[in-house]
């Protein structure tokens, strides 16, 4: 979250050109809830192509992007997601973004300043809301700029089926979502209907958008960025298939940032002949992931724990191994 806010703050500083008009707008969702947005309009008669950004991090942080987009001839809509800042409704992460995004897209199509051509933009949670919009399966988006996002929300919360404890709990607390937000996700420990409704990967075939997918080697959504690119590139609709670009660099969640706290991530590690690699094996990675009590009870339903016994198979007959890439040729 901090990385995205920093990115938006820099954007606000760099882009200072004023559009001809800025309006406060409200999209009324299908259940009557008002979703607040800022509309940046270029000078001239219009109608204009539209860029939509939906964020839980406060729409006003997109003022720089909105002004620059308007200067370049786009109508830009920056919207607070449901329950956040100026928008009404329950303050829950990604709970209604599938339908809210779809309703916003339909609203844009009815406006006299819109020519019906829509692209979406955002990073981190702002990229996830873009994927959530695509999970509606209704089409209508021609392009996307997806920075460190994820198409499958279940895999964000339950990576490999294990609850991502510290990441999820810390993010929900720091973002000030309502108190029962964690409990709602814990109540769905398997990929049930709740998660399937929010899984954009099930709708790749309806995607018609050309897109840029940007991520980092050390980002929390590194694999998800690659998954989204591959899904659009190879399984997308006619407008998406073969029209994707993937940009990955030696970055953390803050794109173009190699540092995480006091640690600077390496762009590569070279193992010379004779070097040995130590591999540490554990049956738990708490607090990164929820510890497994080994009782077989549902997630966080019991208080007891059982000791786990792990068996590591080695030798020619048990081919456990560490896979490393080999670069041939002269390194400069």
Can you walk me through this structure?
By secondary structure, the protein is of the alpha/beta class. It has a domain at 2-152 and 199-264: Alpha/Beta hydrolase fold, catalytic domain (Rossmann fold, 3-Layer(aba) Sandwich). The chain contains 9 helices and 12 strands. The chain has helices at residues 2-14, 63-71, 97-109, 125-134, 153-157, 165-175, 181-186, 193-196, 222-235; strands at residues 21-28, 34-41, 48-55, 75-80, 114-123, 143-147, 158-159, 162-163, 210-216, 244-249, 259-260, 263-264. The strands form 3 sheets. An 8-stranded mixed beta sheet has the order 1-2-4-3-5-6-9-10. It has a two-stranded antiparallel ribbon with strand order 7-8. Strands 11-12 form a two-stranded antiparallel sheet. It starts with a helix and ends in a 68-residue tail after the last strand.
Tell me briefly what this model is:
The chain has 332 residues and is an alpha/beta fold.
Beta percentage is 15-25%
Number of E-state strands: 12
Strand order, sheet with most strands = 1-2-4-3-5-6-9-10
Radius of gyration: 22 Å
| Topology order in helix (H) and strand (E) letters | HEEEHEHEHEHEEHHHEHEEE
Coarse structural class: alpha/beta
Described by the principal axes of the CA atoms, the overall outline is globular
CATH top level of the domain at 2-152 and 199-264 is: Alpha Beta
Overall CATH architecture of the domain at 2-152 and 199-264: 3-Layer(aba) Sandwich
Average residue-wise pLDDT: 90
How far is the N terminus from the C terminus? 37 Å
For this structure, what is the CATH homologous superfamily of the domain at 2-152 and 199-264? Answer: Alpha/Beta hydrolase fold, catalytic domain
């Amino acid at each position: 979250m901090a990385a995205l806010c920093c990115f938006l703050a820099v954007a606000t500083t760099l882009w200072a050109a004023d559009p001809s008009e800025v309006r406060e707008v409200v999209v009324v969702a299908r259940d009557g809830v008002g979703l607040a947005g800022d509309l940046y309009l270029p000078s001239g008669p219009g109608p204009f192509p539209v860029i939509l950004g939906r964020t839980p991090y406060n729409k006003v942080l997109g003022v720089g992007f909105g002004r620059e987009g308007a200067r370049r001839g786009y109508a830009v809509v920056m919207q607070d997601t449901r329950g956040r800042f100026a928008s009404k409704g329950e303050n829950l992460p990604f709970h209604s973004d599938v339908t809210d995004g779809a309703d916003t897209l339909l609203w844009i199509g009815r406006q006299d300043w819109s020519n019906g051509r829509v692209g979406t933009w955002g990073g981190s949670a702002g990229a996830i809301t873009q994927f959530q919009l695509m999970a509606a399966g209704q089409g209508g988006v021609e392009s996307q700029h997806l920075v460190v996002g994820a198409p499958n929300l279940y895999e964000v919360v339950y990576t490999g089926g294990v609850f991502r404890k510290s990441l999820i709990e810390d993010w929900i607390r720091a973002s000030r979502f309502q108190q029962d937000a964690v409990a709602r996700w814990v109540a769905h420990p398997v990929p049930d209907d709740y998660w399937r409704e929010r899984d954009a990967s099930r709708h790749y075939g309806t995607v018609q958008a050309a897109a840029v997918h940007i991520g980092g080697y050390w980002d929390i959504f590194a694999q998800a960025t690659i998954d989204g690119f591959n899904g659009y590139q190879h399984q997308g609709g006619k407008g998406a298939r073969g029209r994707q670009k993937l940009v990955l660099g030696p970055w953390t969640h803050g794109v173009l940032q190699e540092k995480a706290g006091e640690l600077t991530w390496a762009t590569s590690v070279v193992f010379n002949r004779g070097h040995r690699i130590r591999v540490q094996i554990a049956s738990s990675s708490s607090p990164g992931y929820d510890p497994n009590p080994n009782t077989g009870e549902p997630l966080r339903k019991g208080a007891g724990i059982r000791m786990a016994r792990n068996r590591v198979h080695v030798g020619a007959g048990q081919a456990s191994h560490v896979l490393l890439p080999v670069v041939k040729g002269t390194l400069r």
